[in-house]
Automatic annotation (TrEMBL):
The entry's keywords: Membrane, Transmembrane, Transmembrane helix
Single biological process term from Gene Ontology: cAMP biosynthetic process
Name the UniProt record assigns to this protein: Adenylate cyclase
Biased composition (Pro residues): 688-697, 707-718
Amino acid sequence: MGLGRLLRGLRGHGWRIAITLLPLLGGLAHTAGLLHLPGVDRLDAQLQDARLRWHAPRGIDPRIVIVDIDEASLKAFGQWPWSRARLARLTQELTQRQLVRVLAFDMVFAEVDRTSGPALVQALGSGRWPAEPGFDAELARRASAIDPDGEFARALAAAPGRVVLGVHFDGEAGAPDNPSAVPNVQPPAPLLPADALGPDAARIPAWPTLVASLPGRTTGARPGFINVVFQPGQDGVVRTVPLLARLDTAPGGYYESLALATFRAATGSAPPVLRLATAPGASPRLVALGMQTASGRLDVPVGTDGGLVVPYRRPGEDAGPRFRYVSARDVLEGRLPPAALQDRIVLVGASAAGLQDLRATPIAAALPGVEVHAHVLSGLLDGRLPHVPDYAPGYAWASLVVIGLLLVLGVTRRSAAAGFAIGLGACGGLLLLNDLLYRHGGLVLPQAAALLAGAAGLLLSMSWGYFVESRKRRGLMRLFGAYVPPQLVDDMAREPHRYSMRAESRVLTIMFCDMRGFTHLAEHMAPTTLQALLHEVFTRFTEIVNRHGGTVDKYMGDCLMAFWGAPVAQADHAARAVHAAQDIVAALPALNAQHEAAGLPTVAIGIGLNTGPVVVGNMGSALRRSYTVIGDAVNLAARLEGLCTPHGVPIVVGENTRALMPDAPWRELGEVQVRGRQRGVRIYTPEGPAPAMPPAAAPVHRGHPGGPRPPAPARTAN
């Protein structure tokens, strides 16, 4: 479709296009941040969840095992918290007997063990008995040998680089259970120094307090923060998790999440290199964490806030777990064969009532927090890392613009079904494109604004077409149904804005077709026979007029009046009228033969054709109106019809009509003086057989000058 034709197709659809594009303007305002539409964000999140569930890998990841402090474990070893001595035995069993690759604790051991010697001495000292210096000294000596925290720290130190201990960021600086807030107790060393990001540091979540595990103890374990969600989404669903967080108080620095620390321990990766993106006039933005692993370089795409889209897994065919769970009781009681968990990455978490940390996720309404870490770890190991690219806002804008253009294109379609199909196809195409980009590139791109705007625009457009434009169509059907061929009525009904009922000036070709001697025949025929004869003759003549795209104006007794060039503009209206007249004359012998066989009288006809400017439109009174033509060219056509008998020809054509068909064969009849005109009119009659014409529906034009001319035989001498 050419641009000019497209622009012409938009004429008459101004209000409908404006109504259609109104929701898209809202979508653009939302994308630009000028208008906040929470429903759009919710739909985007739900579409992202559905896409993730559809494409996530299915089944258990055998590389990761979760050691679960479950109800059976509490029943066997007592309520939580357990003694650090028992945790030391758990650590030794997993690192030395089971030979796990990495052990990570999704918990923080912030307080001193309540069963340690100093804690017992403090508890006994609060009792009410007389002070005994000798007893107190002996108690302190014996208590110093009770050190479960030290036992746990030694078990951790025996597996250097293979253990990750949880730390926790807190917003309440100086909390009483926060060792980092106690003087002379320093937090663990950060992953990256405080100046690693420079001006972009403000985008990374900053916290005033870091709650560490086993403060003051040397363990050789890596720290990893266990905060799964810093700022939950509107619906509370965990879709992204932070990989980096910043301690905002001295000494400051950037810490890594439990999942990232565990991944680096399992792959031997050095601290990541921060990859920044720069744009003219803007400060650098964090876009990825670059790490060198044994299998090659891995760029972990993150948001400017250090967040990662969680690459969740799906349950297996039986809707079972995504990871293998092993009860801590089975580990502590030695029920697992030696090396049963060899080379596995083990996360220690809790699912017992009162201990479990449940999170709403796209794959489950209540998922243990330790499993969220496991999903992140699984995605890092696979390199399966969905992410929101930098150009996501631009993509949202482009989607809205493309959807809008396609909806406007749909408005110009003649068929409502075609317009609906274009709009529906645009929305479906956007869904398919986003699905392909996610599946093959891991791109999480916004689409809800474009989909909602497209659906709303399509609904408004269809409603406007049904309630407003369909009323115009019905008016056209009522007005023109009795005048023009049915196929042209359908064409007009599909594009009612192109056709007006108001009077306008046009150059048309008018035909008057009259039956000769019909008054005498009518006086000697029964009314019913006369009615049948007129019906048959006019039906045949009207079919021919319709076939050539003409408009039947009226039947006046034994005369048929028709014209070409309105309401559908036709560049070749003169040729159509002449060929229709020739076909009527050619059809008359067969029609008369049928009349003779039926005992009816035969008829003769005379046809007058003239071309000229007229006024055409819906005319009449308040009680009755009709679509007709008036003007001097109409009167001349009627008078030319009356000249057929004197000149002995069935068709008389005016000079204006003949001038529009210079290549057709003509015979000049001379110049006649017509009543009401000062100068004479040259008249002609066509010669030769009527050339073949295509079906009436094909040669319809929209009033473009220079349209195709029907074929005509070679010119002959007059």
